[in-house]
Amino acid sequence: MMQCLVSKSVAFAVSLHRTHFCTVAPLPDAAVAPLSAEGSGYLASDQIQAVADTWERLAPADNLYLSVPFLQSMEDFPPAGMRFRYLVFFRHGQPAGIALAQIVPIRTTEHLQWLNDGHWLRKQISGLFNFTMLICGTVQGTGKHGFHFRDDFAQNGQLLVEALEKEATRLNAGAIMIKDTCRETATDFSRIRQSGYTAFPFQPNMVLSRAPHWRQLSDYLEDLSAKYRVRYRRARKKLGGLTRKELSYPDIRTYNDTLHTLYQDQAAKADFNLISLHPGYWQALKAALGNRFRVWAYFSGGEMVGFYTGIYHGESMEAHFLGYDETVNREHQLYLNMLFDLTEEAINAGAERLVFARTALEIKSSVGAKPEMLNCYVRHKNPVVNLLLPNLVRYLEPEAEWTPRHPFTESDASTSLSTGPDLAGGYVG
């Protein structure tokens, strides 16, 4: 019987954190910058290996995005223009928390493609948003992957903000974003708005939660209404002669250029695209993460025409970056079939949640995904721009009108799916 990949990913992560906390070598006091709370401070490094021992013991075992192997692969093959900063927090001499910061150059007309065809005033205003941003979190994924503290110390949020402010000044960053915090975290950040930050609920994270009785795809299909089962069968028939294959590490090396070209073709069409991945990204993740990062590709004859990727950690499977030939997609409904294949993979792996991330909200809801609202906190260092920031962002933000779909029968919809806790991240649409 096939072993659950999710369980294996948890076991691997736990093994990474088994060394006893008391064995951490003390760090030089001179390297720790003081913070306002008594006995608190932090250390910052631009190399994960410099703080790896302490980081591994503090990072949650079920969060792959905060694991040293993932961070090292990002550092070795960074997105264009991206730099990294790793913060370790201390209280009374003991390590207490970690935070990941990514330094990203923001060029609004490059990252917001829709502005190039927009109103002339929007283009003029967008010039205010050309700066370097310090992002607490990971642009490569959606969710709370930016920080973790060992306990619920009331001032954790304030200490995080203080450290980020110090690092932004040191790195000459024009703005700070604390990315993708969930509502449970809101109490920890009750003082953030008093520090001049604005909370923005960007596009929601789309998540499919597995019903307890889903053991295989047929169980999921049984819960679909008749209309959506017909839609599923029609999409599968549309695949025609396309074949699907999971790629091994040697396969990824062989098809690396094609993978990257297909990814770039789709990324260039996205309304919002903050980063451009390194061509070595796919190989680096496979080498670092093994079966916790998987790649599937579609072929027409011997030619690759599309691919999607998945990351396994904790109880979740996360749809990651993808790419496809647009002509093939129209003819074969390739993107919709990718969503169905991701759903089947997640069910087979025993994942409790399939995270589809942002974008293409309506079609993701049509396979059963529900929106999770996450907040981003943003502050611009220019006080005038920061004062105008809430209205400016609302004015510049593209309209994202969509109609939620309800593919499950009414009796199952209330029990088989949960909306999860009440956002910019991995590209899956």
How would you portray this structure in words?
Helices cover 35% and strands 24% of the residues. The protein is globular. The longest helix is centred in the middle third of the chain and has 16 residues. The protein has 429 residues and is an alpha+beta fold. It contains 16 helices and 16 strands. The strands form 2 sheets. Strands 1, 2, 3, 4, 5, 6, 7, 8 and 16 form a 9-stranded mixed sheet that branches. A hairpin with a 2-residue loop joins strand 12 and strand 13. Helix 3 packs antiparallel against helix 11 and helix 8 crosses helix 13. The N terminus and C terminus are likely disordered.
Secondary structure elements and pairings:
Blueprint: H1 5-16, E1 33-34, E2 40-45, H2 52-58, H3 68-76, E3 83-91, E4 94-106, H4 108-111, H5 120-126, E5 131-136, E6 147-149, H6 156-171, E7 175-181, E8 198-200, E9 205-209, H7 217-223, H8 226-238, E10 243-247, H9 249-254, H10 256-267, H11 281-289, E11 293-300, E12 303-313, E13 316-324, H12 326-332, H13 334-349, E14 353-357, H14 361-365, E15 370-372, E16 375-380, H15 383-396, H16 410-416
Helix pairs in contact: 3-11, 8-13
